[in-house]
Amino acid sequence: MLKVGVFGVGHLGKFHLNNWKELSDVELVGFYDPNDEMANQVSDKYQLKRFYDVESLIDACDAVDVVAPTNHHFAICESAIKKGKHVFVEKPLANTMDEARQLVTLTKESGVKLQTGHVERFNPAFLAIKDLSLNPMFIEVHRLAEFNPRGTEVSVILDLMIHDIDIILSIVKSDVKSISASGVAVMTETPDIANVRIEFNNGCVANLTSSRISMKKMRKIRLFQKDAYIGVDFLNKKTEIIKLKEPEDTNVFAFDIETTSGKKTIAMANPTVPEVNAIKEELLSFKNSILNNTRPVVSEIDGLMAMDVAHQILEKIGNNVIAQ
Known about the structure:
Blueprint: E1 2-7, H1 11-22, E2 26-32, H2 36-46, E3 50-51, H3 54-59, E4 63-66, H4 73-82, E5 86-90, H5 97-110, E6 114-117, H6 124-127, E7 138-144, H7 156-171, E8 176-184, E9 193-200, E10 205-211, E11 218-225, E12 228-233, E13 238-244, E14 253-259, E15 262-269, H8 278-291, H9 300-319
Parallel strand pairs: 1-2, 1-4, 2-3, 4-5, 5-6, 7-10
Antiparallel strand pairs: 7-11, 8-9, 9-10, 11-12, 12-13, 13-15, 14-15
Helix pairs in contact: 1-8, 4-5, 5-9, 7-9
């Protein structure tokens, strides 16, 4: 039985509590949250023990789930790792690159499992293409959200775009060659909307737009590669594929087109999207990595790499601030 404690029981923390309670081989031992009103609500609703200091909860656990604000990630994770506890920590991994590097070093030295909460890796629409051979040469991403004061202690890059940075880095098996970016702070003191171009050494180019001041929501990524287009709608849990038809393709809509090299058959398909809860899937993955002693799907290295690119983007935006 894996004993788990949750740090932070705000909006997202409650989702984590609900999903931990549904997982087998897990004992939810309690939570820590300094907000008395929030903590009392959770204690009453979940009949769960409230711990009044960080160290006591860490000592009572085999693994911790850190859903606290980003500026608290390092202190909680550092203490847990040094005590040999496994760590699940929401994205971004830490508040600064120095903190993130320290956590990576500590994790390696201690041998514990650390998983970073990049939940879009477990989005059903993305899982629908996990068995495809992906080698995109052009990527277009739009992640738009309505304004919400929650989470604005960090820029839109670390709040929203980092999801797509992680997805892209997991797909494109090449080092980043160059980054250009522009952004503007509208409602907060940090960028609320940004446009980024990432070029990779293998020639792939990714254009990303993220905004947290939009009138409508959108979370889409479009991949263009030789003979195929793949569209993933993270928000509506839909996936579409358009590609040259192969002999073994079945159950697809196909039509012929004339090209300079002759007639080709184009196939259109909507892969089956699994009916899964992304948060539950990522917590299950974390649990299994501990019990089976396997590498987490989204490791501390993945978290560090996404943060590294995000901070390069922030540096570029700092040099290209759009005048107000």
